[in-house]
Design a protein that fits this description.
Blueprint: H1 2-12, H2 17-38, H3 48-60, H4 65-84, H5 111-120, H6 127-142, H7 146-151, E1 157-158, E2 163-167, E3 173-177, H8 180-192, H9 213-224, H10 235-248, H11 253-260, H12 265-268, H13 270-286
Antiparallel strand pairs: 1-2, 2-3
Helix pairs in contact: 1-2, 2-4, 6-8, 6-10, 10-13
Length: about 290
């Protein structure tokens, strides 16, 4: 049944490879626990106390609460699937409650640091330098995810309209506007990018192959290390930076939601906390009674 569930996620729910892999890992771990602890070979026959016991064992291993919550969510989704397919009559995961977690504010790079990056960073004028700058400016200038920049194709660019077409989670399509300077950079990059019959992907390695996630991660870390001391120096930090800078400059929250490709406003509202923190600091520095 787990195999059928994973196929359902992939083909019917159109979940990403990363999501499917996460569900598979969680369910495999749960299945092994049931077999070892209770000699129960199938999750379908597990009882509510068995599920609770697994969650307790995860907590005893000092697993991060957010990681435990993800595993709880995996069980809920799986048992919901089984119930809809009438494999089970009662859902044992209903007894599980999510653990309380501390909400972390999204890490972002200050505007001055981003200005310094593009004004002073040593981007060379050859293909490698222009490609690296294109990666950095695309991530910061459009807020797209790591998986989205890796999968961008040349045909997704509309340079006349200054937009890019992005396929997000569950292949949901959105159109993202880009600046004049980023459009000019993309034109310059395309002139240096050698035409390839093997691939239509936009961002290529020095050898003309499509870039892969680790390549982009290394590139981002290399250039962010020159301008910030943040412990996180990832493509997702640039996505947070994009959203936070838009909000700080007065962009509408609903507009940011659409630009980021969020399914609901709740996912976008976390960026308002950064702006509130900034207002608090301004108040403390400027108000006589602060």
């Amino acid at each position: 049944m787990i195999t059928l569930f994973l196929e359902y996620l992939k083909f019917e729910k159109r979940a990403s490879e990363h999501t499917v892999k996460a569900y598979q890992t969680d369910l495999d771990q749960f299945q092994k626990y049931l077999l070892f602890q209770y000699e129960c070979s199938t999750p379908e026959s597990a009882s509510p106390p068995m599920l609770r016991s697994w969650v307790v064992s995860l907590m005893e291993e000092s697993l991060n609460p957010s990681s435990v919550n993800r595993k709880i969510a995996s069980l809920r989704t799986y048992y919901s699937f089984l119930k809809r397919r009438k494999v089970i009559s009662n859902d044992p995961s209903k007894i599980l409650s999510a653990l309380k977690t501390r909400k972390k504010l999204p890490a972002f790079v200050e505007e001055k640091s981003m200005e310094m990056l593009f004004e002073e960073a040593a981007f060379t004028d050859d293909f490698e330098g222009i490609r690296d700058r294109t990666i950095m400016e695309l991530l910061y200038g459009s807020g797209i995810r790591l998986a989205e920049i890796v999968s961008l194709e040349v045909k997704d660019l509309d340079l006349a309209a200054r937009t890019i077409r992005v396929f997000g989670k569950r292949s949901k399509e959105r159109i993202v506007p880009v600046s004049v300077s980023l459009t000019e950079l993309l034109i310059k990059y395309l002139q240096l990018r050698a035409p390839s019959e093997d691939t239509d992907f936009l961002i290529l390695t020095d050898s003309g192959k499509p870039v892969y996630p680790v390549f982009v991660q290394r590139t981002v870390k290399k250039y962010l290390s020159a301008v910030t001391t943040l412990s996180q120096k990832s493509p997702h930090v640039l996505r947070h930076t994009y959203a936070t800078h838009l909000l700080n400059r007065g962009a509408d929250l609903n507009a940011i939601k659409e630009l980021l490709g969020h399914a609901n406003l709740a996912a976008t509202q976390i960026y308002t906390h950064n702006s509130i923190e900034k207002l608090k600091k301004t108040h403390q520095q400027a108000h006589p009674k602060a």
